[in-house]
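Internal tracking record. Fields below are filled automatically when a chain is submitted to the structure queue. Please do not edit lines marked as system-generated. If the sequence contains nonstandard residues, flag them in the REMARKS field before resubmitting.
Queue: standard
Priority: normal
Entity type: single polypeptide chain
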Amino acid sequence: MLDLTDNELTAIMLSLRIGVVATVASLPFAILTAYALARWKFPGKTLFNGLVHLPLVMPPVVTGFILLILFGRRGVFGPFLASVGIVFSFRWTGAALACAVMGFPLMVRAMRLSFESIDRKLELASGTLGASRAWTFALISLPLATPGIIVGCILGFARALGEFGATITFVSNIPGETQTISAAIYTLTQVPGGDAGAMRLTAIAVAIALLALMASEVVQRYAERRVGMID
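SYSTEM-GENERATED OUTPUT FOLLOWS
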């Protein structure tokens, strides 16, 4: 069994906390965004889609710097948020925000594919029976897209656990406050004798990521069986 130190346990628990908060906070926005991209037609849809997926191709450090400009203590929105008691910079909440931004595209992509796979005739039939768009979404589209939503949440959570560049740029690397598993591994590799601790945390990070990917695969296969796509 891995003999973890108090600092390593703190980093693991903080990473799990940040991952859960980032995923839960992103969920309603990811669902709405995915549905809009899958079903709606509106001016600037291509640009909007590009902006949503921009964190996937942009260097994480750039994303973190943009967050610092926007939500830092002296950023565009930082002073106002601080006046109402909301502080992101150098806080675990800021790490959750950075992780949410980085994991958001993965969540949206999985959910969008799920919405697009729904037979539109079912949604149209609901409308002909008198259901409003909101009721059709709540009673038809959302339940049928549930497997994709679950997969999106799993991938977003896994991405949050592995986030490093945007987080360390936005909220630094403060033990017990913003030091996640990735940041702790980076710190341990910079100090003499830290290789053993880095190896322990690396093993845990790999195990969590592998479990998340396996879980997403299981959910996907279950969904495919339900719709008869595979035997």
